[in-house]
Amino acid sequence: MSVLVLDELDRGLIHALHVDARAPFTPVADILGSSTQTVVRRYRRLYAQAGLRVVALPKPRSSGTHQWFVRLTAATRSAHDIALALARRPDTSWVRLTSGGTEIVAIIHTAPAGPDAHALLLRDIPRTAGITAVSAHYLLHTYLGGPTAWRGRVDALDADQEARLRAETGTTSAPNTANPTDLAASDDPAHLLTDADRLLLSALREDARLSYAELATVTGTSASTAARRLAELRARGALFFDIDIDPGLLGVTVSALLWMQVAPAHLDTVATALARHDELAVVAATTGPTNLVAHALCRDAEALHHYLTRRVAWDAVTRIETAPVLRTYKAAATLRAG
Question: What is the pLDDT of residue 200?
């Protein structure tokens, strides 16, 4: 079986989808100096062979949910089944197997209140056979990740090409490639999703490039109504688009979660600086004995060693626990295991 190798056109297409996830292929092809037919063919190939998925997800403030990083210690023989069961749940994302195959890390989305708000954390997981330890870290603030793309996926287009694409598609800004620290903090009131919004987002979570006619069929409305609702959600910042694709296709062979302990007085300064590092895809402040988590994507083990010893060797970082990611079962929304 041949291994898929991405070329400049593939990487340019991925970058363009980060700029505008719903951009028509014709202006994308124009920016990339290719034909529409070729770009469509490449997209279909990436979809079929590279697991490329364009998804839309609600902002936590709009969905009214809380996010928890959960670390589960499990027996090696049961870890796979537990991780797969978690990945199949609609209230989880970023399910990974780490640390020699005995630890599962997942993000769990919970309602802020109600009798079953934390049932998964307080009842279901602790009673699961094979789990020997559980720790939950409430996600307090995201410095990098979510709406902001890992820079390894957005290094194919230059600033002029991005600007041209936004102009041609009518996208007024590029939230997925903006300064992460500008996106992390917002004092604007959140737009709380309605039932109609949730139905629309449920379809977009599976495929954010569905046509308005297809969205109309799923939501039981007209294409114009679907277009208007989506435009309103985008304008209000109630959702963001993300791309799921295997980072290994982009030259990454080593992936690791970094659980850091940082002096509270320096937490914001350290996290803001880390959010600008090309090696990191996620930087978030959490509760718990470690108060900062990052996701590192590196070319190889030597590159990760260089990063840890020369770029994160700050006095304010008093402890780092490095947990290599062995397998990803679920990314933002896409299952990676059968």
Answer: 96
- Number of helices (H), then strands (E), belonging to the chain: the values are 13, 10
| DSSP state for residue 297 in the 8-state scheme | E
Here the tokens at position 245 are: 């694709």
| 272 in Cβ contact with 180 (< 8 Å) | no
CA dist., res. 14 & res. 52, Å (int): 9
Q: What is the mean pLDDT of each run of 10 residues along the chain (338 residues)?
A: 82 97 97 98 95 92 89 92 91 92 93 69 74 93 91 94 93 52 51 91 94 96 96 93 92 96 96 97 96 97 97 92 96 75
Cα dihedral 41, 34, 214, 172 sign: positive
Query: Of the candidates 294, 205, 298, 178, which has an alpha carbon nearest to the alpha carbon of residue 247?
Result: 298
* Token pair in block for residue 277: 């590092």
User: Is residue 274 a contact partner of residue 313, using CB atoms and an 8 Å limit?
Assistant: no
Question: In angstroms, rounded to a whole number, what is the distance separating the alpha carbons of residues 335 and 338?
Answer: 8
Pairing of strands 103-110, 254-262: unpaired
Q: For the chain, first and last CA: distance in Å?
A: 19
Q: Are 256 and 224 in contact (CB under 8 A)?
A: no
Contact between 122 and 134 under an 8 Å Cβ cutoff? The reply is no
Interior/surface letters 81-111, b for 16+ CB within 10 angstroms, e for the rest: ebbbebbeeeebbbbbbbbebbbbbbbbbbe
Sign of torsion over alpha carbons 204, 209, 211, 212: positive
Hey, what are 157's tokens?
Answer: 């287009």
